[in-house]
Amino acid sequence: MKRRIITTGDGSKTIQIEDWDEQYHSKHGAVQEAYHVFIEHGLRLFKNESINLLEIGFGTGLNALITLLEAPRQQLSIDYVGVEAFPVSKQEVDALDYFQQLDANDQQEVFQKMHSSPWEETISITSDFSLLKQKKDFKEIDEENLFNLIYFDAFGARVQPELWTVEIFLKMYHALKRNGVLVTYAAKGSVRRAMQAVGFTVERLPGPPGKREMLRAIKN
Fold first, then answer.
1. What is the tally of structural domains in the chain?
2. Is there a domain that residue 112 lies in?
């Protein structure tokens, strides 16, 4: 499928899949969405501890990068697992140029290390942040009671409805520890009902720019 780099509403870039008219991040603001959904309503629930974090859709690596930047502020040590079936190319990563938007020019080497590190191997990116990238379909996830937090950042249900089903959310539920949290930009009623069907307690929260609501699910 044809892909191109586009500039989003906050000046940061993302990848657009033209055949689907779908973006890796919100066209209203890639960085704003990432911080609002995954940091503000996910990562900031944790402080001064070691956590295991699963990202569904490693994609451009933006969520991993901002998590690494935020971790010292929350005094967190993070073991980060990013699952991605179709990795982006080095040329695409270089073209995204997130550093100016994040005021993080000193982290370019770290970001390159994230993308150049081998798949299926845990790598220490910093002293408090390890990364394991897994190249596989989301349906192959089979961990149980391992993760404190899940970033569910799959492509939208409009283009990939099979990723927003009871089957997938049951895997997410099993993968989380008790009181674990899943956050996603999505807010569709069918998604909320699928989460509730597998046992999650689900709350609607204010969405990022361009979206009225988002969802956060908790494993009781």
1. 1
2. yes
Does some domain include residue 20?
A: no
Q: What is the DSSP letter of 159?
A: T
The amino acid at residue 210 is: G
β-sheet bridge partners, residue 116: none
| Structural domain includes residue 17 | no
Give the E-state strand segments of 44-87 in sequence order. Answer: 49-56, 76-83
For residue 152, what are the β-bridge partners? 56, 184
The pLDDT of residue 192 is 98
Q: What is the DSSP letter of 200?
A: -
SS3 (DSSP) at 111: helix
Exposure of 146 in the CB half-sphere (CA atoms within 13 A): 15
Backbone angles phi, psi at 50, to 5 degrees: -100, 130
Residue 104 pLDDT: 87
The pLDDT of residue 100 is 78
Q: Which neighbouring-strand residues pair with 87?
A: none
Q: What is the pLDDT of residues 161-191, one digit of tens each?
A: 999 999 999 999 999 999 999 999 999 999 9
Range of the domain at 170: 28-218
**What are the angstrom distances between the C-alpha of 21 and each of 6, 26, 101, 140, 198?**
12, 12, 24, 27, 31
Give every residue of the chain whose pLDDT is below 50, as ranges: none
DSSP E strands, 58-100: 76-83
Integer Cα distance of 9 and 186 in angstroms: 19
d(CA 99, CA 114): 14
Cα(133)–Cα(117) distance, integer angstroms: 8
Place of tokens 């990795």: 87
